[in-house]
Amino acid sequence: MSALLLPGASAPPREVVARLGRLAVASLHAELALAPKPGLVTPFDSGSHADMDAETFLRSLSALRQYFHDVALAGAQDAPFAQLRTHGVAAEAAMLRATGGINTHRGAIFNLGLLVAAAAACRRIDAAPSGEQVCVAVQAWSDALQAAPLDPDSPGQRARAQHGIAGVRELAAAGYPVLRTLALPTLRHALAAGLAREAALCHTLMTLVAELEDVNLLHRGGAGGLRWARANAAAFLANGGAFAPDWHAHLQRLGNAFVARRLSPGGSADLLACSWFLLQQEAS
After folding, report:
1. pTM exceeds cut of 0.85
2. DSSP alpha helix (H) spans, the chain
């Protein structure tokens, strides 16, 4: 099913499509470059990950450049979900070839890929859609999303089944409410209040960690690890978050505690990259 847009609507220009693909990769670069990020890979350390580092992520990003262009083009052409899924499956294979079998961007391939396609599709009727509009547009694929097969042996799916929580598929089918009502408003407020990009992104990341049922945290730390991570993220925010004068040192200490527990909020990091993409595409 396609049905995103009005019949006969014109596809956006090729340069707009190409720009959206580049913005997606740039958003993932921005997330990777961000530091400190508790438990996550940065250019300076591997966080809680023994099998990957920043170079692994860069190899993956290089392999995914074509995917984000292709999925933007598919969205611009009002393609059905099945075509988007085909691009995603090929992208995951390219990622694994580039990283020697390490999963660096599976969540981003799904979430950011859908949002890139939706951003391109929205431009068939609106030259400058808001981030919220793009999120809602993903709902046009909700039936196909719910019907798509899942890998029951993946760590994320096992964690979701064990703990009975909604996964990324349900998040997407609902039009990404966590992005519309939490991440984007938080990021916009932080930037409007004068925080530098690094601080605004770190503040938004910890807001996501405090609220999200992050399956990466569940997989690594179980329900107790998720509760601990959310409580400490909430405490960071209650202390002022990135608005506090000592926020950088506070977040670095918290990062050390995440690493000691081998916790990594990878789901929150994926949605942070999505948030930055959604904000940047508003001006593209």
Report:
1. yes
2. 14-33, 54-76, 81-99, 106-122, 131-137, 142-147, 155-163, 168-173, 177-178, 184-192, 197-211, 215-238, 247-260, 266-281
Q: How many Å apart are CA 183 and CA 205, to the nearest integer?
A: 8
Rg of the chain (C-alpha set): 18
Q: What is the pLDDT of residues 83-109, one digit of tens each?
A: 999 999 999 999 999 999 999 999 999
- Which pLDDT score is estimated for 2? 44
The amino acid at residue 99 is: T
The pLDDT tens digits of the residues spanning 56-88 come to: 999 999 999 999 999 999 999 999 999 999 999
Q: How far apart are CA 205 and CA 209, in angstroms?
A: 6
Cα angle value 107/261/212 (rounded, 5°): 40
DSSP 146-215: HHS---TTSHHHHHHHHHT---HHHHHHTT-HHIIIIIHHHHHHHHHTT--HHHHHHHHHHHHHHH---H
